[in-house]
Amino acid sequence: MKKSRKAPLLCTTVFPGAGYFILAKPWHGGMALLVTLLSLIIIMKDAMFKADIISKEILAGDMSFDPILITQKLMAGPSLYGPNFIQYLSLFLFSTWLVTVLDCYRLGKKFDNEANKS
Questions:
Q1: Residue 63: CB partners within 8 Å, gap ≥ 6?
Q2: What is the secondary structure of 24-46 as a DSSP string?
Q3: Which of 1, 5, 15, 31 is 20 to 30 A distant from 71 in Cα terms?
Q4: pTM for this predicted structure
């Protein structure tokens, strides 16, 4: 399989930036991995914070176990980082993924063209 196809495929299926490692760009792959992991940790920390608040209210009997009510509480409830931060972080995470896929395709094409010339 050509590297111009394998690298973006790894970026989409394994983690953003995985394709850099087969293109001999470990620094780029490591940075993409770091950005992805930090973003996911922040998102999960906020999700656990919200889940803890809602579960305590359900166990105390202050809130019923209604999925619609829980969803509304998740959207409007308190957040560790502010109301729109997680949305922006999710957008940033998606854009990081998209940029790594496109860049790995570009670098893979370049690598394939150099291999064909030799």
A1: 54, 57, 69, 70, 73
A2: T-HHHHHHHHHHHHHHHHHHHHH
A3: 15
A4: 0.82
- The greatest distance separating any two alpha carbons of the chain, rounded to the nearest whole angstrom, comes to 72
Q: What are the two backbone dihedrals, phi and then psi, of residue 34, each rounded to the nearest 5 degrees?
A: -65, -45
How open is the CA angle 102-95-81, to the nearest 5 degrees? 160
Query: In this predicted model, what pLDDT tens digit does every residue of 108-118 receive, in sequence order?
Result: 999 888 888 86
For 17, which DSSP code?
T
How confident is the model over 59-90, as pLDDT tens digits? 998 888 888 888 888 888 788 888 789 999 99
Q: How far is CA 42 from CA 2, 28, 76, 97, 107, in A?
A: 35, 21, 18, 17, 30
